[in-house]
Amino acid sequence: xxxxxxxxxxxxxxxxxxxxxxxxxxxxxxxxxxxxxxxxxxxxxxxxxxxxxxxxxxxxxxxxxxxxxxxxxxxxxxxxxxxxxxxxxxxxxxxxxxxxxxxxxxxxxxxxxxxxxxxxxxxxxxxxxxxxxxxxxxxxxxxxxxxxxxxxxxxxxxxxxxxxxx
Length: 166
Known about the structure:
The chain is mainly β. The chain has one domain (20-165): Sandwich (Immunoglobulin-like). Helix content is 0%, strand content 43%. It has no helices and eleven strands. The protein has strands at 2-7, 10-15, 27-32, 45-46, 63-72, 78-85, 100-105, 108-114, 119-121, 133-141, 158-165. The strands form three sheets. The protein has a six-stranded antiparallel beta sheet, with no helix packed on it. Strand 1 (2-7) and strand 2 (10-15) form a beta hairpin. The two termini are 19 Å apart.
């Protein structure tokens, strides 16, 4: 970081050094399609590792319910935003674009919208050093149409959990 100040023709500069030695910022995630699921120690994965959740083959006009848990392994609190991503987009007729998603925590709706538009910040900060875990429910509604446009359609769905240290 460079700090500069000017006065007439004089420029003064000071160097600011931020020591990040030993500072780690990382989130861990877990997930399941089981109703009422809570993570156990063996469920947690590094935020950089893909987490696969098996779901039964949904039918048109149905919904898929998922639970995703997140905890912070860093030494500082973090703000967390949950969003969705299509790992293999195929264009505007992709089923991912037709999905409607609701995100809730403890029965409180935090946000909803199309899968590509959902970006939900979790209320408050996520405590440091694995002190707490947050479990978020995702309800994914498959499209209701009068035709068979989405029959046998498939899409991938990645839950993205981004954190910002405080």
